[in-house]
Amino acid sequence: MATSSSFAQIWSGVQVEYGDRKLTSDAPHSPPPTPIVHRTSMPKTHPQLQAGYKWQIVWRNVIGFIVLHSIAIYGLYLGLCGYVQIKTILFMIVVAACSALGITVGAHRLWAHRCYSARLPMRVLLAVFQTLAFQNHIYEWVRDHRVHHKFTDTDADPHNSSRGFFFSHMGWLMVRKHPDVSSKGGAVEMKDLEADPVVMWQKKHYLWLVPLVTFLIPSFIPYWLWQERFWYAFAVVGVTRYMISLHFTWLVNSAAHIWGTKPYDKNITPTENPTVALLAFGEGWHNYHHAFPWDYKAAELGNYRLNFSTAFIDGCARLGLAYNLKTANASLVEKRSRRTGDGTKRHHHQHHNHHHVEGGVWGWGDEDMAEDDKRVAQVID
Ligand code: ST9
Ligand code: ZN
Ligand code: ZN
Fold first, then answer.
1. Residue 132: which of 242, 17, 280, 219 has the closest Cα?
2. Neighbours of 77 (CB within 10 A)
3. How confident is the model over 151-204, as pLDDT tens digits?
4. Cβ atoms 105, 312 nearer than 8 A
5. Whose Cα sits closest to atom 17 in ligand 1?
6. Which residue out of 173, 203, 245, 296 has the highest number of ligand 1 atoms within 8 Å of its CB and is therefore the one to mutate?
7. How far, in Å, from the CA of 251 to the mean position of ligand 2?
8. Which phi and psi angles does 3 have, rounded to 5°?
9. pLDDT digits (tens, 9 = 90+) for 289-332
10. pTM score of the predicted model
């Protein structure tokens, strides 16, 4: 493997290697070798951005986030200084938990990665929860997320973490996307989402659903049921709750692509980050998740500690609402971790210099998924 280190790369702390990563294994028009970026420290600028790509700031979003953060700080003040009723705070926690499940169990593990199947009532509930979270409609969320897994840390990745903490955290939502996102991302499979009437209905009606479901209903309930001041409820349950869950979600794209161990694949940026797992309802076991994106647990852990989303899916499976749960069995995980892990799982003496990068699979059903994985994956009916 060739390693190139130009002055700009050294200066920006980014080393670009041209690996043998194959993004579409048997497609006739396979893309050229994709640079694999290994960060040595936080990059100030991305090498490819210096080669002519220009930021195009979307001021509407910048201003929107400034306003939302200001209201959220006011809401925090109201909450912490005892201006709102305890019932309102408890209600905020419930709403935040539901919206988190809409993202983790719904948009992420069900719709983006097809880790399991869900019956209609569960899909409807998850779509309502996902709307509470206001992180774009399911279709757009899934498209960006599949593209993130398929083209991780390249220009085609919507929140390419080699562009730094801020960009991958929230900066990507305030600039126009790199042209590679739509040109390469356009080839990613979305037919399964198009076939789901729940997803398509939400997409069609998203513009009026968001103000109603994300902000108005959660603010009116405390006002109607226990006479909280409407504006207080709006600031605390509406906006503060929303901004906190956004930051917790964004940490998966930023912190869990920077800090932590890589027991399953040391050649990719995603890490095992328990703090993020705690804050993001079990989605911080991100090295495992990028290695086995189709695993409904999104972690190797056999218990529910720091993974409430897995407990929720198992509960729904017991009720018959979720089925076809896919998970990597212990021997598959073991094999992968011996082959590409950083040694933090176990077998410290098993280090090797083999730099083959696996991954580039968005989930269950991806044509690039290894036959071996498909064969030995456990499917729980
Ligand atoms: C938000 C999302 O915050 C957060 C996602 C986080 C994901 C984390 C995942 C981690 C795991 C789960 C963790 C859960 C934790 C839960 C914890 C809870 C406590 N492929 O986008 P446009 C094409 S959202 C293919 O407008 P611009 C397409 O043709 C926050 N093609 O690009 C498209 O047209 P159409 C709230 C693509 O103009 C066209 O390009 N929302 C793709 O560059 C234009 O697309 C906001 O803030 C693709 N991936 O604008 C809104 N993408 O759609 C922010 C695009 O018609 N968004 N195309 O098909 C925007 O305003 C804009 O998207 C933009 C870019 C300004 C950022
Ligand atoms: Zn990731
Ligand atoms: Zn994922």
1. 242
2. 13
3. 999 999 999 999 999 999 999 999 999 999 999 999 999 999 999 999 999 999
4. yes
5. 280
6. 173
7. 10
8. -120, 125
9. 999 999 999 988 766 767 889 999 999 999 999 999 999 988 88
10. 0.84
